[in-house]
């Protein structure tokens, strides 16, 4: 392949494209990726120099098996020979049917006496799956005399960027002030106390406040939605499973639905297949996405029980949603192959990342500008006492051999599950270099 004219492409990128959360007048630094293999990206600079770095982000947490994976390539290529896409309205195909069966098979079912999640709605992105989950919950009550229209969640969450999911994102982090009058008004319980085992007094106080908010609005609440165990893009916060159990009890007492958004936590990221498994709760509705296709193609899904699907259909006629690319055969075929690759061995390995990450990152706790270091499953987070200097942190990490994408006060990694111990060591060196690059001038080594 000829070497691309990187300088020209980057200039054109700046002139014509939007990047995520980007300003056209003050564009952030954007780097050029030429290809990717295993857990590594090949970057090319505008002077033509190329370098390989580990992808400590798994491309926003989805490329769990790394890149250019033979099994996933083969699944995509085989499906391309049949068809890349057909509409899902009135038609079906083998990849979708088999993915439906597979999703039902792998769905969390830690509570033996709760309905199994046996029906899947295939959506084209995580945000759309949250839209669909919220629509499902609202449709359950839509035909009532006084329909329940409100959703309760906890502060600090992230559920996507389209408007209805934005309404349940953290009101400050989700910039609700920009959208006043546009977003539906939802209910926000306080931020859950930090840590897998919260301080008992803090937990009691949180429960009291949450219960009183819930009871005040119980007859308006259609559903509770949370990211179980780990709040991702809202702040990489690990919290006590007891908070999720408590919210579930409140919702069930008052006839509301429980929605787990496992778009980030699913597929082994937090150390169990689903965060729901560790919490011991089977939700009424489950959103999954990100790692579903191993980072190859965009796809998400919403699972619910057959009972709930029937209730929605009897009360409102149909599930009113139907994306153009719903059930895309290419995505379904790759998702099937990706789920097959995520066997016990790979899951166990990912669950053990936390120990390795903790060993390497623990020394950072000693630094005055580090507020916290936390790990869970295949997630490692360093929280600073101030906002990250993103350009300095990213450059330092790349020099140490890994690509990171810090935000707010957080420098973190969610590595591909195929990383070796050496790869994890390099990733931690890169995170460490990034943390040092953000030290106040008075603390930096000369
Ligand atoms: C990423 C994410 C979403 C949104 O998914 P997209 O595919 O980016 O639309 C929703 N919820 C959670 C928990 C996420 O991490």
From TrEMBL:
Matching HAMAP family: BioA (MF_00834)
Main location group: cytoplasm
Keyword Repeat: no
Protein EC: 2.6.1.62
Gene designation: bioA
Residue(s) at site: Participates in the substrate recognition with KAPA and in a stacking interaction with the adenine ring of SAM: 21
Protein name: Adenosylmethionine-8-amino-7-oxononanoate aminotransferase
Catalyzed reactions per annotation: (8S)-8-amino-7-oxononanoate + S-adenosyl-L-methionine = S-adenosyl-4-methylsulfanyl-2-oxobutanoate + (7R,8S)-7,8-diammoniononanoate
SUPFAM superfamilies assigned: PLP-dependent transferases
Keyword Signal in annotation: no
Pathways involved: Cofactor biosynthesis; biotin biosynthesis; 7,8-diaminononanoate from 8-amino-7-oxononanoate (SAM route): step 1/1
Molecular function terms, GO-annotated: adenosylmethionine-8-amino-7-oxononanoate transaminase activity
Subunit structure and binding partners: Homodimer.
Compartmental location: Cytoplasm
Cofactor: pyridoxal 5'-phosphate
Superkingdom to which the source organism belongs: Bacteria
Family (UniProt): Belongs to the class-III pyridoxal-phosphate-dependent aminotransferase family. BioA subfamily.
Record function comment: Catalyzes the transfer of the alpha-amino group from S-adenosyl-L-methionine (SAM) to 7-keto-8-aminopelargonic acid (KAPA) to form 7,8-diaminopelargonic acid (DAPA). It is the only aminotransferase known to utilize SAM as an amino donor.
Binding site for substrate: 60, 158, 290, 322, 405
UniProt modified residues of type N6-(pyridoxal phosphate)lysine: 290
Alphabetical list of NCBIfam families matching this protein: bioA, PRK05964.1
PANTHER family according to UniProt: ADENOSYLMETHIONINE-8-AMINO-7-OXONONANOATE AMINOTRANSFERASE
Positions annotated to bind pyridoxal 5'-phosphate: 126-127, 261, 323-324
Residues forming coiled coils: none
InterPro entries the UniProt entry points to: Aminotrans_3, Aminotrans_3_PPA_site, BioA, PyrdxlP-dep_Trfase, PyrdxlP-dep_Trfase_major, PyrdxlP-dep_Trfase_small
Organism: Dermacoccus abyssi
Keyword vocabulary terms for this entry: Aminotransferase, Biotin biosynthesis, Cytoplasm, Pyridoxal phosphate, S-adenosyl-L-methionine, Transferase
């Amino acid at each position: 392949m000829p070497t691309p004219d990187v300088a020209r492409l980057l200039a054109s990128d700046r002139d014509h494209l939007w990047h995520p959360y980007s300003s056209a007048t003050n564009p952030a630094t954007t780097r050029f990726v030429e290809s990717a293999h295993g857990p590594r990206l090949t970057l090319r600079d505008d002077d033509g120099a190329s370098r390989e770095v580990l992808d400590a982000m798994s491309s926003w947490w989805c490329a769990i098996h790394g890149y250019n994976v033979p099994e996933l390539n083969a699944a995509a290529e085989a499906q391309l020979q049949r068809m890349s896409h057909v509409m899902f309205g009135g038609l079906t195909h083998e990849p979708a049917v088999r993915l439906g069966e597979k999703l039902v098979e792998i769905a969390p079912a830690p509570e033996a006496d709760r309905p199994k999640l046996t029906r899947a709605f295939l959506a084209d992105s995580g945000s759309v799956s949250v839209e669909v989950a919220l629509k499902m919950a609202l449709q359950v009550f839509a035909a009532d005399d006084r329909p329940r229209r409100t959703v309760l969640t906890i502060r600090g969450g992230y559920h996507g960027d389209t408007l209805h999911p934005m309404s349940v994102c953290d009101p400050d982090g989700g910039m609700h002030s920009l959208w006043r009058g546009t977003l539906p008004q939802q209910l926000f319980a306080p931020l859950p106390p930090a840590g897998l085992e919260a301080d008992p007094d803090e937990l009691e106080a949180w429960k009291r406040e949450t219960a009183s908010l819930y009871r005040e609005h119980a007859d308006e609440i259609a559903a509770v939605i949370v990211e179980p165990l780990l709040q991702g893009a809202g702040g990489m916060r690990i919290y006590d499973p007891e908070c999720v159990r408590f919210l579930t009890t409140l919702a069930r007492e008052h006839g509301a639905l429980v929605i787990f958004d496992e778009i980030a936590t699913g597929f082994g990221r937090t150390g169990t297949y689903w965060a729901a498994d560790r919490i011991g709760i089977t939700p009424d509705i489950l959103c999954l996405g990100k790692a579903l296709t191993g980072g190859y193609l965009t796809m998400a899904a919403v699972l619910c029980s057959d009972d709930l699907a029937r209730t929605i259909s009897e009360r409102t006629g149909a599930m009113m949603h139907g994306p153009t690319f719903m059930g895309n055969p290419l995505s379904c075929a790759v998702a099937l192959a990706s789920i097959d690759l995520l066997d016990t061995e790979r899951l166990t390995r990912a669950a053990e990342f936390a120990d390795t990450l903790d060993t390497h990152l623990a020394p950072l706790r000693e630094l005055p500008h580090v507020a916290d270091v936390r790990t869970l499953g295949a997630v490692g987070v360093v929280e600073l006492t101030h906002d990250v200097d993103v350009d300095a942190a990213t450059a330092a990490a790349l020099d140490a051999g890994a690509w990171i994408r810090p935000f707010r006060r957080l420098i973190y990694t969610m590595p591909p599950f195929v990383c070796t111990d050496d790869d994890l060591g390099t990733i931690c060196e890169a995170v460490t270099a990034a943390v040092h690059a953000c030290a106040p001038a008075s603390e930096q080594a000369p």
